[in-house]
C-alpha cells in the first residue's frame, strides 16, 4: 500500500511571533521555518507503517513556495521515499487557501493512487483544521480525524479518535483519509546519514496548472493583532482582601 503524506511549512513553534508595524501580517524577516508539528506526526506514522510492512512506499507532498522543499527534504530524511512539491511561487504571493490545497492534493491523489492519505489535523499558523476534511469530500473517501491510534487490518482501517467525550473508534474502508492528533506517536529525529541520503532521493516539482487548478485568493486578510499582554499577579494578605479584589477589580463576583 502506498501512503501519501501532506506536509506544510510554518514558522517554527519555538519562535516568538512578531507582527508587522502596519498590522498587515506576521513579520517573517529572518524567522526560522520548520515542518508543521502535526505534519511531523503524520510523517512518523507513515514511516512506521512502512517499517511494519503495512506500507510499501511513503510519498510526501507540499504546496507552497520553493523554500518549502526544505521541509520535504526533512520528511525524506525521516524515512519518506520520495517527494512532490507543488510550487505556488509564480501564481501568488498570498497564502494558498485550504480549498485550493485540497484541490491540488486531489490531483496528486488521482495520479499517485495511494491507499491512505495522512495529514496533520491542523497547521499551527492558520489553525483551520479543514484541508483533510475537504480532500475527503473531493475524493469521496472515508475520513478519520483527530486520530490517536491507527490500525490497518487488510482493507479496513481502524482509527481511534479523540473527541470531547473521550475516545471513539471508527472503521474505514481503504482508501481513506486520516488526520493526526498529538498523542498518535512521538516523531523521531533525523540522523545525519539519513539527512545526507535524503539529498539523493527524488523530489519532483509540479505547478498548479498541471492539475488544472487556479490559485486565487477569496479571503482578504484585514488585520493581525498580537495577543494581549497578561498582567502580573498580585499577592493578597487575607481572604477578605481576595474577595474584595474579585468583586471590585476583577468583577467576577
Automatic annotation (TrEMBL):
<dbReference type="InterPro" id="IPR033948">
    <property type="entry name" value="ETF_beta_N"/>
</dbReference>
<keyword id="KW-0813">Transport</keyword>
<dbReference type="Pfam" id="PF01012">
    <property type="entry name" value="ETF"/>
</dbReference>
<keyword id="KW-0249">Electron transport</keyword>
<dbReference type="GO" id="GO:0046395">
    <property type="term" value="P:carboxylic acid catabolic process"/>
</dbReference>
<dbReference type="InterPro" id="IPR000049">
    <property type="entry name" value="ET-Flavoprotein_bsu_CS"/>
</dbReference>
<comment type="similarity">
    <text>Belongs to the ETF beta-subunit/FixA family.</text>
</comment>
<dbReference type="GO" id="GO:0009055">
    <property type="term" value="F:electron transfer activity"/>
</dbReference>
<dbReference type="InterPro" id="IPR014729">
    <property type="entry name" value="Rossmann-like_a/b/a_fold"/>
</dbReference>
<protein>
    <recommendedName>
        <fullName>Electron transfer flavoprotein subunit beta</fullName>
    </recommendedName>
</protein>
<dbReference type="InterPro" id="IPR012255">
    <property type="entry name" value="ETF_b"/>
</dbReference>
<dbReference type="InterPro" id="IPR014730">
    <property type="entry name" value="ETF_a/b_N"/>
</dbReference>
<comment type="subunit">
    <text>Heterodimer of an alpha and a beta subunit.</text>
</comment>
<feature type="domain" description="Electron transfer flavoprotein alpha/beta-subunit N-terminal">
    <location>
        <begin position="23"/>
        <end position="215"/>
    </location>
</feature>
<comment type="function">
    <text>The electron transfer flavoprotein serves as a specific electron acceptor for other dehydrogenases. It transfers the electrons to the main respiratory chain via ETF-ubiquinone oxidoreductase (ETF dehydrogenase).</text>
</comment>
